[in-house]
Amino acid sequence: MSTDNWVQADLQHGVLKIVLNRPKVNAFNSPMINQIQAAFKQAERDAQVRCVLLAANGNSFSAGQDLTEMRSGSEISFRTHLLRTYNPLILQIRRLGKPVLAAIQGAVSGAALGIILACDLRIAAQDARFLVGFTGIGLAPDSAVSLLLPLLIGLGRASEATFSNTPIDASQALNWGLVNQIAPLAELDERAMLWARQLAQGPVHSMGLAKRDFNKAVLANLEEVLDYESHNQEIASKSAEHQEGLGAFLEKRPPKFS
Question: Can you give the pTM of this predicted structure?
């Protein structure tokens, strides 16, 4: 598949629908993240865009970072990678003065979890599963997961989900405030688009100002947290735990941490 098709953007009725489209699990690599950043830049600059709907093709929303990319060169700096990719993208989503709605099916984990948490609203299919993922490969949370997950579900639940690496199902996610709505899988696209169109028909300027208020009130340290996460991820990436976790993941075996 051409890299040009990894992210699709289509504007209809004031809604810019950004669709992840990299089979099998929409794992992110640098070119794909660049395309997502470009789509959000389009949303910011185009006055016709009044709402963004972030969705994905396939059975999973996204597995997060493509780990084979990070293994392709031993000199890759995780901190530099984050400063170029996920950190700017998270800030783009939060600073966009228009509502951003995520429609989630199947599994979402790692950096992809941070991206959907940065969105203003979330609707999930009944088969959705939310996995922190980082500790399973000997890494620490990044992409603002360390800030946004405890903010939405509480520190205790976030700690348990992070340390145990146990998925949060759609019903739990709704009860805990991780998502706003759930829908049958067959109805997810239709219901998400209907909601996005309703948002696009609303007072978008006022919504943007409200979003700025929320950012100031509860996310004022977002940029600082993203930078600190990247610092800790650089440390984690050089650890024996990460080497074992990554090797186990690629070899499809349970990790043996010691």
Answer: 0.96
**Per-residue pLDDT for the chain (258 aa), expressed as one digit of tens each?**
456 689 999 999 999 999 999 999 999 999 999 999 999 999 999 999 999 999 999 999 999 999 888 775 557 899 999 999 999 999 999 999 999 999 999 999 999 999 999 999 999 999 999 999 999 999 999 999 999 999 999 999 999 999 999 999 999 999 999 999 999 999 999 999 999 999 999 999 999 999 999 999 999 999 999 999 999 999 999 999 999 998 998 899 999 998
Query: Which neighbouring-strand residues pair with 129?
Result: 107, 169
CA distances from 233 to 15, 143, 155, 203, 227 (A): 35, 10, 20, 39, 10
Q: What is the spatial order of strands in the sheet that 107-109 belongs to? A: 107-109, 129-131, 168-169
Contact yes or no for 146/173 (Cβ under 8 A): no
Q: Please state, in angstroms and as integers, the Cα–Cα distance from residue 100 to each residue in 123, 159, 246, following that order.
A: 11, 26, 32
Taken in order of first residue, the domains within the chain and their CATH numbers are: 3-186 (3.90.226.10)
How far is 68 from 115, CA to CA, in rounded Å?
A: 20
Tokens of 114: 């941070």
Please, what is the angle between helix 222-237 and helix 240-251, to 10°? 80
118: tokens are 């940065």
